[in-house]
Amino acid sequence: MKVILRNRLFLISTILVLMVSLDISLNVSILKQKNLITKVLAQTTENIEKPKPLFKYIEITEGCDHSFRDGCVNVRSGPGKDYKIVSRLRNRTVLKVDSVETRNGEDWYKISFDEWLRYPDRITEDWYVSADVSNLFYNEGTVELNKKTFVQNNKHIVISLSEQTLYAYDGDYLFMKEKVSTGVKDTETPTGNFIIYRKTPSRYMQGPIPGATEKEYDTPGVPWDLYFTKDGAVIHGAFWHNNFGKVFSNGCVNLPPEKAKILYAWADVGVPVIVNE
Questions:
Q1: Where are the beta strands (DSSP E) in the chain?
Q2: pTM of the model
Q3: Which of 29, 94, 174, 192 is geometrically suited to a Cys-Cys bond with 202, CB 3.0 to 4.6 A?
Q4: Please, what are the averages of pLDDT over each run of 10 residues along the chain (277 residues)?
């Protein structure tokens, strides 16, 4: 009887040990599976492109035309008409907004110049623009070509210097045909095959540029910029002239601002640009 009892106890203890071992194995297996799932989810999350932050910009709509007719927009040194005028803006100028300030029931946009400037000493005061003379919009800001950029290969831009015309193609479909102004003598637009490596809604363009042009100029808010050479050749809107179809620029490709805006939205970084005679 004692032998039978010992055997039963041994059997029960063996079963209990097996059950405990099995439970531990199951827990370890479940833990490993949880760790694996967590790792896969983390990798998947990393691969998902996070929403890009959007920045505030304004486009001047109630200012003067290219020849300064019809009254330009006054830029003030503070948020109010009692502050001094520090600059004047023409229509289609695009500027980045740092903040919005309300004074006496009127909204004022404080302008941001957080980009690299060739001559930063030319800005000596804060810039404020009234909301009444501009349209506020949101944009992702400057976009740079990088290794993760998906290139839309069926799009390309052709610029004919002899015709002073830009052609934008989506495959065989002609998306845009528009007269442009390219570089004048001594600052000609470079010919060759390029790609858009950078785009930004607004650029403060300044000269002279060593090795490129000795002309002095100071143009804030140049709109809808598509960079295609490291030396600074850009397709962009030009609100300061109406000579499209003739050479006029310092090497860039000038478009009417409303057309440049459309092209900017259409052309991603990585799109080829072909400039020929």
A1: 55-60, 73-76, 85-89, 94-103, 106-111, 128-130, 134-139, 143-144, 155-160, 165-170, 173-179, 192-195, 198-209, 213-227, 234-237, 253-255, 272-276
A2: 0.81
A3: 94
A4: 51 52 53 59 57 93 93 97 97 98 97 95 97 98 87 89 98 97 95 98 93 87 97 96 97 97 97 97
